[in-house]
Write a structure and sequence with these properties.
The chain is of the alpha+beta class. The protein has a domain at 47-144: Arc Repressor Mutant, subunit A. The chain has six helices and five strands, in the order H-H-H-H-E-E-H-H-E-E-E. The protein has a three-stranded antiparallel sheet with strand order 3-5-4, with helices on one face. It has a two-stranded antiparallel ribbon with strand order 1-2.
Length: 179
């Protein structure tokens, strides 16, 4: 009987150890599967996506409405780059309508919002429709201009803000900068 216990105790210990390892691996795989499944389904509703598209289209309209497709797409891409950067709000509308107070002065990230906040309805509907299409291409279809992968800021070519940022491109009437 003693000999049987000497042999079976190590076997029982090995069995317990194997069981613990298998349970640990199973637990980890279950976590990974749950994480993968949660990534498959976005928490963004259709209503939220429509609102983001509208905010992006308005930003394109007021910032680059009369530019060629690339100029419009560039403005949209900078807006999305900011939302994805972790340094700006993660919501596109919050990026577009973001205001900062500097020395008791309110500054908008996009000047049109401070200047035309009361006239937020686009007047040229054909141009606005084109801006909506560009917003869809960039936001929903993932269209990107490779030269603007790191672009976070831009200004019109007739303005000199004196930024100490690296210039990466000029598209239409806008000069684009990386951070």
């Amino acid at each position: 009987m003693l000999k049987f216990l000497k042999i079976s105790l190590p076997l029982i210990a090995v069995f317990i150890l194997i069981n613990i390892v298998v349970q640990g691996i199973t637990y980890k795989f279950d976590q990974l599967r749950d994480q993968q499944n949660s990534m498959k389904y976005s928490t963004v509703t259709a209503e939220m996506r429509d609102q983001q598209l509208d905010c992006l289209a308005k930003n394109i309209y007021y910032e680059a409405g009369h530019e060629a497709f690339e100029g419009k797409a560039a403005v949209a891409q900078v807006t999305i780059n900011r939302a994805n950067s972790g340094r700006f709000p993660t919501d596109i509308c919050k990026v577009v309508y973001q205001k900062n107070v500097v020395y008791d002065r309110v500054l908008c990230q996009f000047s049109w919002y401070c200047e035309t906040a009361t006239i937020m309805r686009p007047k040229n509907l054909a141009v606005y429709k084109e801006c909506q299409e560009v917003a869809k291409k960039v936001l929903l279809e993932g269209f990107r201009l490779p030269s603007l992968k790191t672009a976070m800021y831009y200004h019109a070519d007739y303005v000199n803000p004196g930024w100490n940022k690296r210039k990466i491109a000029q598209i239409g009437r806008h000069i684009f900068y990386a951070d």
